[in-house]
Write a structure and sequence with these properties.
Blueprint lengths: L6 H11 L5 E5 L12 E2 L9 E2 L3 E4 L8 E8 L13 E5 L11 E4 L3 E4 L2 E4 L11 E2 L10 E3 L7 H9 L4 E5 L4 E6 L3 E2 L10 E2 L2 H10 L6 E6 L3 H14 L2 E5 L10 H7 L3 E5 L3 E2 L5 E4 L5 E5 L3 H19 L8 E5 L3 E2 L5 E10 L5 E5 L16 E5 L5 E2 L4 E6 L1
Parallel strand pairs: 5-6, 13-16, 13-17, 14-15, 17-21, 19-24, 22-25
Antiparallel strand pairs: 1-12, 2-11, 3-10, 4-6, 4-7, 5-9, 8-9, 18-20, 20-21, 22-28, 23-27, 24-25, 24-26, 26-28
Helix pairs in contact: 1-6, 3-6, 4-5
Length: about 400
Amino acid sequence: MTELISVAEAEALVAQHMPRFGSERVALERAAGRLLRQAVHAEHDHPPFDRVMMDGIAVRWHDPLPREFQLAGTQLAGMAAQSLDSGGACLEVTTGAVLPGGCDCVIPVEQTRREGARYLLLDGCRPARGQFVHARGADCPAGSLLLEAGMRIGAPEMALLAANGVVEVEVAAVPSVAIVSTGDELVAVDAPLGQGQIRRSNDVAILAALRLHGFDRIVRHHVADDGPATRALLADLLAAHDVLILSGGVSVGQRDYVPESLDALGVRRVFHRIAQKPGKPMWFGAGPRGQVVFALPGNPVSALVCTIRYARPALLASMGMAAGQPEQVRLDGPVDASELLTCFVPAHVHSDAQGSMIAHAVPSRTSGDFSALPRTHGVVQLPPGQATAAAGDVVAFYRW
């Protein structure tokens, strides 16, 4: 029997053997959702000019300020900068326009009344120098670091890329992933159930856990508990994909053919079996061309826990995602744990009145019971050493 390794050892070994998937350049409109692999600096001052923030009139502020101004022209958004020479005059301005030369104050139109070619300030209007002026470079000066490599490109990041003239974006290349379900008892989702059969669900759950984080090069396969068939399928997949994620066939049963098939195909075992519950039988190995193989237990909760705890974060890190610490949550009550094993327990999380994250455990009855998982947000990781984790304990939390 293979000796159990700790969760920390398994995590470190996976990280040591992960390949780097490189990068590619894509058009800006295709960059949303991808991992950024370049630093982005401000092309120019933001804003690039003193910018008007309200529709109204632009004036030169002095004390005392006149209560009426002679209209000297208009400054619209997109126009070249106009100039104001007289302290008793004003220019009509619109939001987003360049602040006219000689002006340092914008008075909102709601605080004025126009009478012919002059503007009068309403009672109670007390303008101040610099009001409603978005100063050049106030957001950031030219050359400032705006985006760092490793960030996920969302809507705000897309806006910054566009505003700084980034037409093509260097992003992480997405690895090709094959997900394989093993087992005689498994049938397709749309197939009728015969005696002793269940529908495949692990592959769909693993696919979702990856696709929701930007992995879109995924295929799914199924193989029965048959040695030659398992070796043939795995040989084809190792030749075509960067990553294999298998579900089932990794225990020590008489029909668990995955480890011996991988060994026959030149995939070197890095570890087999982790001191955790659920997910103890997990297997991980490295292929002859740098491929990696995550062979997960077949029970649904075990497979999903191993996916979110090992496979997904390792793939994201290999693509260049900036490393971060797991969320920390506080248990709202005692939870069964183990003196020997790290326990992963499904939990619902919420924020308390002080803004701390609180976890309410929703334990599965078995590692095959996934019916309650939709009412949870992820799993808490309970370290070994005690039979029960106490209410108030702060533990790591991993989201589905």
